[in-house]
Structures are given as structure tokens and as C-alpha cells.
Amino acid sequence: MGRRIGLLASLVALLALGGGLLAATPAWATPPKHFHQQFNLSVPDDELSEACGFDVVVVFAGNTNTTLFYDQSGALVRSTVTGPTFTQSFTAPSTGKSVVSRSPFPVITDYTGGGAVGTTAVARATGLVFMLQPGVMFTGRQVLEGVVGGHTPEGIPIIDDATVTLISQSGNFFSGDFAAVLCAALSGP
User: How far is residue 114's CA from residue 128's CA, in Å, rounded to a whole number?
Assistant: First the structure.
């Protein structure tokens, strides 16, 4: 369950942010494109709601900066997404309690096929994903692979969450029963 939450947190942030690899680009390449986005996204979590016995909502909020990088022919090859003030929270409307964590990790994504729908994308997220309490956190590096399922109006690829697989993970990713710890934190008095 803990691995699922860490993967889910990375994945949802990745999807919300549109993906993201910062690297030097040749001077003759198509210039990078920069976008600033604001997010305030609330998503009911059915699995956690069932485990807790009350509704649990995941909220992602904050500003993000996305940069798209292109090769010499103008094809998209990578993107970076940063959100130093980005937060993730779990909230229980029935108890009025929430657990909030900063989630400033950058997401770096390499694209094949110019990031076209149906092509592969490999994303790396490094840093703090979520901290429930000391010792119960998800922080480190995750490498994920998925397929581009669409694009934002700005042209930022969106990875289809049904295709995402975890390639590797290192760091401090809580391996205990995250749902039990979270449900206890969100329970009434």
C-alpha cells in the first residue's frame, strides 16, 4: 500500500504537471518553451476512503514551471517541471482533519517520437514526494515509464496513468501500512 501511495503521488503530480529532463541544448536547437501553471486539484481517493471508513480527498496545489526542450528538427525531446511551493494533502471532510506536505520534487521526462500520442516517455522524479510524519515519508528518486495519452492546450504531453510502470526507486519510501497511519491521522478526536 505504501509503495502504491508513493507511486500514486508521483504519478498524479506527474500527470498534473504534464511530465518533465533538464539538459544543455545546442544553440541551434529550437528554443525552449516556458509555461507557468497554477494548480488546485482535488481528487477523491476511493481506495483510501474504503480503508479509512470515511471519505479521503487528495489535494494538489501550487504553482509549477514547465520547460519544453526540442531537438534541431523541432521535435520535443524532454521537459522539466518544477514546483518549489507545490503541496499535496490528504483531507477527510467528515472529520475536518488534513495532513499537508510540501512536494517540491522536480519531474524530468524524456520523450520518444516528439512526445506524440502513443509514444513512450521516461520520467524521473527526485526529492520529497510526501511526508506524513517523521519516518513516514516518500522521498528519493523514482523512474517511471509510460505512454503519452494526450496534451495540455499548451502542448505539454500528459502521460496516461494506466500505462505507467515503476522502473526503479531509491531513497526513503515508507514500506509500512501507509493507509493505517494516514487513517489514524485523519480520524476524529
Answer: 29
**Helices and strands counted in the chain (H then E):** 3, 10
Is residue 103 a contact partner of residue 87, using CB atoms and an 8 Å limit? Answer: yes
- Say whether pTM exceeds 0.85: no
Per residue of the chain (189 residues), give pLDDT as tens.
444 444 444 444 444 444 443 344 455 568 999 999 998 999 999 999 999 999 999 999 999 999 999 999 999 999 999 998 999 999 999 999 999 999 888 999 999 999 999 999 999 999 988 888 877 888 999 999 999 999 999 999 999 999 999 999 999 988 889 999 999 999 977
Which residue bears the cell 518544477?
A: 82
Q: Assign residue 18 a region: left if phi > 0, alpha if psi is -120 to 50, beta otherwise?
A: left
CA dihedral 106, 178, 11, 67 (to 10 degrees): -10
Give me 24's grid cell: 544543455
